[in-house]
Amino acid sequence: GRGLSKVTVSHDGVVIVGAGLGGIRVAENLRANGYEDSITLIGAEVHPPYDRPPLSKSVLRGEHDRVDLKPAEFFTDADITFRSGQRVTAIDTESRTVTVEFVDSPERTETIGYAHLVLATGLTPRTLSGTPADVGGLHVLRTVDDALALRAELVTATTAVVIGAGFVGCEVAASLVATGLAV
Hints:
This protein is of the alpha/beta class. Helices cover 22% and strands 24% of the residues.
């Protein structure tokens, strides 16, 4: 074992890996369409599910700190177990289980059984290869914490370079220009 481990074996519901828009919509629609068995939503971030598009706009510009997708009582009202700060590290399709590690305590793991599994993990941004992790002023925008860290550096910045001219890159560039930076 990897340390402290707990096994929760219940194979009567849906486990959704990923607490972003896709995961929350699956859970919401299951309940709206009469699904009565357990629903467990697992997210690696410690934050409740939030909308990602504002990260490159209103969050980056300081108009919001986060835009939650659902109020806190949604999970209780809809009888959805939301497990935040837990990262799925293994999926065993034969035994129908997922193993999670606790982000704040990686030596703690738990195994959760499922009848149905949904993977809604989203994408991981591509980073520049060969770039040391400790280079200052270099940011990737994927999470609310990424947006808040970038926003904090904007206070003293006068210029910025955005690498990536896709949808998010263009929105980041426009937001930075709106804050007065030369991009």
